[in-house]
Request: fold
Amino acid sequence: MTVASPSTAAGTVVAYYQRLSHHDAAGAAALLEPGLRSQMLAGGGSELTNIKSLTNIRDVKSAPASFPPEAPRGYVDITQVFVTYDVVYRQVEASSNGANSRFVYVGRDGAGGPWRILEIGTGP
Reply:
């Protein structure tokens, strides 16, 4: 399946969670920075495969951000996107069922390159 690259940082985050809501782990993973993608897939897929249902994506806000310390170099236009959604997990691990919020760092892969998710966290 070919995944179109969203044209904005916020669009990338929304597309990621929409794909998770449709159980499209491959499509969601394609929006991740390759190192983060490998890490998430090696760890049993984490949220890529642990979501039973995800609905009501909301409160999407984005703002320019400084480069996250653990993110790979080479990305530009670093943006932090805040998002809230309702989720039911197959197995409750680090997060609880119900409303969840995430701070997602997104960057462009070089000047004019596609947006990729660099980090996902529960705090700024």
